[in-house]
Design goal:
This is TPR-like protein. It comes from Roridomyces roridus. The chain is mostly helical. It is built from 13 helices and no strands.
Amino acid sequence: MFKPGDRLNPYDPASLEYPGDDAARGLMERIAAGTSPMGNLSSMFQSPEKLQHMLQMMQDDEAERARTGETLDEQILREKREWAAADKKSAGLKVKGNDAFRNGEYKTAYVIYSTCIRLSSHEPLYWLNRAAVALKLKLYTRAVEDVSNAIERGDYNLAKAHFRRGQGHFFLGDWDKAAEEYEKALALQPGDPNVLEQTKELEKVRCDLSEEEKVAWVAAQGAVTVQDIFEPDEVKNRSDELMEQNVD
């Protein structure tokens, strides 16, 4: 996870601290650390939607600079400062989210991690944390989606990521996909007792239940959606309140 003042963080003004020839060294360090925006370019160019989104952002930025008179360098530095402030706030909120999770306040934790994602969507940790909460709330589809977003944004704790995505698939009854995810988790972290236990549970369900019993088992897991457990706009409204608060 990036920290404010981390010069390897491309979203932080500290990443501009390399003078002269050191700028190239700084870029290479960020690429090696997997923190350079260039690391996402290959996947971006393979996706027409992402490429179109990037081009639209560039056009919007150019129009905004024409309106404000801001130079490109001024815009980059301003945005880096804004990103650094957002990263600092999301890091503070994460602590509160962790406390809520430990206390079993899962809806509160969900809102807090959602706010962290709003502030610092580039951080895979926040997506992974919200996936953990989603599993507790039986938001299994959301858990799978959140883990996928986490993996797309970096290789942070991939063993845990694949395990959580496997759990989401397991409770949804997508058992072949669950098995694939557990296998990936064990390849990254051999002998993990939690994954091994869940793998045994998966095989028991797949092998011991009849087709009719499998359907009943999936229904009994009680999968829900965000709309089932939150009032309309509740997550957004509570998140808006957190965005306005000062977080130490």
